[in-house]
Amino acid sequence: MNNGALRYFTESPMPETTVELIQTGPEEAELIRNLYQYYAYESSDWEQEDVEADGRFYIHDEHLSRYWQDPQWSANLLLVDGCIAGFMLIEGSELGMDALELADLFILKRYRRRGIGSAIATQVLCSGAANWLVRFYDQDEVSQAFWRSVLDNLPRPVQTLELDDDPQLVTYLITRAALH
């Protein structure tokens, strides 16, 4: 792993559990690519995605490489007690907004329903001075329930946005200061 990686630690709802979010370097691109297959599988029913001829879901390589090329983008591994438990992808806003986007959060089934995803998402969305966008597809009932729970309990202002780029996306803006 990237030795100079940004690390988030969170107090886990499970006693004596260590949760880390570690920014990866380009040498972990294949690891993120492999984990992304599970993420794509879970959304394949409502996204109507099929696997390619090689048995894998399509990954847009140019988009994936931006996580290590663009300074506002990052691909982060989520570790629980030192074991890979998922990933978080962060992007600079492509919408001309002064915000980072928590683009994808994936947690392996073994680590779900323990409060780990909520804890790490809350810590990231409340850290630093950045405004954040959270977007998810309206058809994704699991993401819908997860994000509504996180955002309802967030100690920062949360605002629903109506954007025209993709009408199926539900978009929230989390600001660092009170909304006027």
TrEMBL record:
PROSITE patterns: GNAT. It comes from the Bacteria. It holds the Pfam family Acetyltransf_1. Residues 19-166 form the N-acetyltransferase domain. This is Predicted acetyltransferase.
